[in-house]
Write a structure and sequence with these properties.
92 residues, alpha+beta, 4 helices, 4-stranded mixed beta sheet, globular, DUF1488 domain-containing protein
């Protein structure tokens, strides 16, 4: 089950990915509010942002995993531009 929390201090939703599978390392990733509002339909406060993430978790997690591999383990924060330049299509 995918879990996520809204973080007011960073204006993002934090969630975990497991690059090596469910029994492997757990990496925390952030997605900024802007892509959740602009691309995934969030329209309210923190709960709306988390819901937008959860409804699109497969797509967002796939991009997070790709960015994690590209950055070789450095922290990942997804912004709108990451979705615009990826091969992963955005859907609502």
């Amino acid at each position: 089950m995918t879990q996520a929390i809204y973080c007011f201090d960073t204006a993002s939703v934090r969630f975990a990915i497991h690059p090596e599978g469910p029994d492997g390392e757990r990496c925390i990733v952030e997605i900024a509010e802007d892509p959740l509002r602009d691309l995934f339909g969030a329209c309210g406060g923190g709960d709306s942002l988390v819901d937008a993430y959860l409804m699109n978790a497969d797509l967002i997690n796939a991009l997070a995993l790709a960015r994690h591999r590209e950055t070789q383990g450095r922290p990942v924060r997804l912004e709108t531009a990451d979705f615009e330049t990826s091969d992963i299509g955005v859907y609502h």
